[in-house]
Amino acid sequence: MKKKLIILWSCIGILYFLFLIWNGLFTSPLSMQEIEKYTEILQQDYSESEFRQMRSFMEEDDGKPVIMINVIKTNDIPKTVNGKTFSSSEEALSDYMSFVTPYLLKRGSYPIFSGTSLMDAPEVWGIENAREWTTGSLVRYKSRRVMLEMSTNLVFKKFHESKVAGIEKTFAFPVSANIHLVNLSLFFTMFLMVVGLTISLFIMKKAK
């Protein structure tokens, strides 16, 4: 029985350690070499003022996760982009997510929340054409590195055309997690503890 329990909790410990690595345990800030690499690529896509902000975003990297806030209004009829046609905006966005979702999950990043709008925004000021929205979501990126890797990925750029086809308007911006009540690490820890204790009780019961 003792040997079985040691093996069980050793396996759980290894599984938890692998989860921590996936979740960002050893994630480091962007190196200067990486910053220069992304600078060369991104300079072509942003205006001078926009790029200055992006450069600061890279230089101030602390290696911690980033939450992306997204608000979207889909097109009533999807656009045709570079020959891509879709029967609905939902189909276009589904095609986009078919690349993004597995890409992020492999890199310790995942959606925290996604919801459908119930009504037009009841409170809007200082911004035009911002009353009508379709969905809102929060996506957790393991690091700024993951964000930059994805946005500069050539395959991603092809799937990004599907996003353009399905969306009428959107805004998205990254924030640091000052208060983070949705904690996958805590949930996974509790899950492993419950599984481990349940199996341990079963092993001890069988040994009697």
Strand order in the sheet with the most strands: 2-3-1-4
**Main pleated-sheet profile:** 4 strands, antiparallel
- Give the CA-based shape: globular
CATH class of the largest domain: Alpha Beta
Tell me which CATH architecture of the largest domain applies here.
Answer: 2-Layer Sandwich
> Separation of termini?
10 Å
Structural class: alpha+beta
Explain this structure.
This protein is α+β, with helices and mostly antiparallel strands and about 210 residues long. The chain folds into two domains: about 1-25 and about 185-208; about 65-175, Alpha-Beta Plaits, CATH 3.30.70.100. Helix content is about 50%, strand content about 15%. The protein contains seven helices and four strands. It has helices spanning about 1-25, 30-40, 50-60, 90-105, 145-150, 155-165, 185-205, and strands spanning about 65-75, 110-115, 135-140, 165-175. A four-stranded antiparallel beta sheet has the order 2-3-1-4. α2 (about 30-40) packs antiparallel against α3 (about 50-60). The relative contact order is 0.19.
